[in-house]
């Protein structure tokens, strides 16, 4: 089994660039090249207390990260390719008009292995006073 190990580098724009190199060691962010996208996403959700799955250059993901950082949480952020987004776990639509329909959206945030949803759901959880207790419960705070 081959695994890829992430290495972080600071970019000239002040961000962090993730580079992957082959290694025998494993880490929570290691990628098993034989692992399906669905299995990798499920593993990342279960191994990290707060995970955001995003498209690259997603402004909503940036707002999610800022909100969580302001609370003292530093989420794991995974940028997915367009074809990988369909592998995200799906949440049923909340309105009664769309029976059997589910949504998959990026960005999607998971806290304690549970799908919170997108930016709107994360903000609603925070405004309702339920986000911080949930973050404490899962050990992210």
UniProtKB/TrEMBL annotation:
<keyword id="KW-0963">Cytoplasm</keyword>
<feature type="domain" description="Glutaredoxin">
    <location>
        <begin position="50"/>
        <end position="116"/>
    </location>
</feature>
<dbReference type="InterPro" id="IPR011905">
    <property type="entry name" value="GlrX-like_pln_2"/>
</dbReference>
<protein>
    <recommendedName>
        <fullName>Glutaredoxin domain-containing protein</fullName>
    </recommendedName>
</protein>
<dbReference type="Pfam" id="PF00462">
    <property type="entry name" value="Glutaredoxin"/>
</dbReference>
<dbReference type="InterPro" id="IPR036249">
    <property type="entry name" value="Thioredoxin-like_sf"/>
</dbReference>
<dbReference type="GO" id="GO:0005737">
    <property type="term" value="C:cytoplasm"/>
</dbReference>
<dbReference type="InterPro" id="IPR002109">
    <property type="entry name" value="Glutaredoxin"/>
</dbReference>
<comment type="similarity">
    <text>Belongs to the glutaredoxin family. CC-type subfamily.</text>
</comment>
<keyword id="KW-0676">Redox-active center</keyword>
<dbReference type="InterPro" id="IPR014025">
    <property type="entry name" value="Glutaredoxin_subgr"/>
</dbReference>
